[in-house]
Amino acid sequence: MQQIRSQVTERDGLFELEAGTDVLDSPRYNHDMAPTKVHERTWNKWHITALWIGMSICVPTYTLGGVLTAYFGLSVGEALLAILFANLIVLIPLTLNAFAGTKYGIPFPVLLRSSFGILGSNVPCLIRALVACGWFGIQTMFGGLAIHLFLGSIFDGWKSLGGTGEVIGFMAFWALNLWVVLRGAESIKWLETLSAPLLVAVGIGLLVWAMPNVSMTELLAIPPKRPEGASVVSYFAAGLTAMVGFWATLSLNIPDFSRYAKSQKDQILGQIFGLPLTMFLFAALGVVMTAASVKLVGVTVSDPVSLIGHIQSPVWVAVAMALIIIATLSTNTAANIVSPTNDFQNIAPKVINRTKAVLLTGVVGLLLMGHELLKKLGWIVSEVSLETVYSNWLLGYSSLLGPIAGIMVVDYFLIKKQQLDLAGLYRDDVYPAWNWFGFIAFGVPVVLTLLSLGSDAFSWFYSYGWFTGSALGGVIYYGLCSMRTSPSVAKSSV
């Protein structure tokens, strides 16, 4: 007979829920959103390291150095330092927000119920989901191009398809991504574990190919594209903010993965080992390859897919494209599909299961790339480029997501003091439906960011949006909660 009241047990600091009818019958619960059991938390530090290597080695990372030099006025050396510092900085919210996922086995949307309310959690969830769907579409575009070039290296007739071939490649890669995620978390774990060494090998191979054709001394001596005599501080800070924004998304939904970690030590070490150095080295590779591209293929090419497509050997093109397809697949499935899948389920867990949520993610990502796909088919003509959207997006969305990160950290560590009512997160009688303190703390930085767009005097608030937003959001949330007459810190139901 099914127990009526849920029970929470602890094993070596990890909490596990034995769901009773109070949770099982709740509209806030389904099997996919349920806390992982302790025996399901099988990811050690090397699995998490492989996860970050797999997510970091991708086409957008390769182009980061070019984005910083072209759009943010940094020199090559300054750009690489900004990337390294940004990923060291972003480790802080990543590891802190991962704590609750590891301790309680809960995904990102369920953790948000503590700081934004049981129903209110859907607002930041959908903001995060929309960003992820956009990135899913962008990465799928790169993966589709790789499939197109792969098939073109094998079948001469395929090349004549042009943009139509790229669209066919997009749809094939789109379907492959959804298939992997539908197979579950273990499928993603093994994809990342197997792909990580392959991706490192690709990076080394590209570097060996490029180094004879570029002088690092000359490359580092290239002057930055900013007004002569301008202070480097403001340009560097804006670029640093944009680079923090690159993983601002994962700093929120890292519980979606840390809920599978064996221990806090595994999640911390895995992220330290896997993220900063991989991002720095692959972005540096992109800078070197772009600089060498003129001698290698005759023109400046800033993305690896197009660069390798210029190689005259069909065999090497086919091999390289197959590896890039794996690289993009490992990034896309983990970074851009898992989160919106959980976020969409959070709206109505009893109605939207994982399969429906994965398909919904796919459809939204497809619609967001509709403009670019129609351009490739030749059905519309437009001057808006994917590269422009990508470079402008980094700074804009980091400003929006920063306050959420600050609120989450403050709520869990300072307000709740790492004690959550695990069963209560899946019911309607413990946490409020809407936590207005969370929305005020989120809304104030966002409004100030929007106002700063029209003010030269306060433009810095937008330029440094992730830092200003996360700090102000956290401070306001802490202040509001501290002023509460009788703070209701949720107690663990152990």
From TrEMBL:
Keywords: Membrane, Transmembrane, Transmembrane helix. InterPro entries: Pur-cyt_permease, Uracil/uridine/allantoin_perm. It is a multi-pass membrane protein. Gene3D superfamilies: Hydantoin permease. It is found in: Membrane. GO terms for cellular component: plasma membrane. It holds the Pfam family Transp_cyt_pur. It comes from the Bacteria. One of its GO terms (molecular function) is nucleobase transmembrane transporter activity. The chain crosses the membrane at residues 50-74, 80-104, 125-151, 163-182, 194-212, 232-252, 272-294, 314-337, 357-374, 394-415, 436-455, 461-481. Belongs to the purine-cytosine permease (2.A.39) family. This is Nucleobase:cation symporter-1, NCS1 family. It comes from Pseudomonas prosekii.
